[in-house]
Amino acid sequence: MTIQNDTFILSKRGWLLATVIAALFLFFTSTGLHLFQFISGAALLAVLAIFRNPERNTLKTEAGAIISSIDGVILSIEEAVVEDKKMTKVTVLNSLWDVSMLRSPFDATVEGFKTRHGVSLPLYNPLSDALNEKAVISFRSANGDELFIEHMSEQNCFPIGIELEKGQMLKEGMRYGFMAKGRSALYLPEGSVVSVNVGATVRAGESLIGYLAA
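Predicted structure:
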């Protein structure tokens, strides 16, 4: 079963870890080891927060609408060139306590994707772009517009999880992956209209990022 069908309140990626920590918490509680009980209880709450998987209702269904793929804060909006194409780059920074599920920005076909296994350096480290774990996905709209999303992990022990197939069709807001903490860059095709400002908080599957060119 792929991750977009992962509709439980706790993502399947967190089931095993949560079960193990919960068992340790019960063991330490029953044996009266209060320090370990506190540590395991705090760890359990952290895991439940990181792997929470709430339902989201897509509200922006206008033609050409682009919704956020990740929870977080808009870090920057700038022009960029990708494969000789002028694009608008919208960067979103998500923390460990934001919802970690990744969602499709519109009704799309997956043109392709690639992942790079790596380390998890802080993003201010100049080596992070070259060494950090990263996933790049290409989405194509029904009108032929192509949008790229780059997810880069930062300072966490949970790997990026992308569960897609080339040619797969996704509905707007459908889950396609997981990233606990990091930076996501949405590359919008030339002519797209951006509807957010730097510093704005966005929610995956709900918040409007902008519109594809008419």
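Summary: The chain has two domains: 3-50, 65-211.
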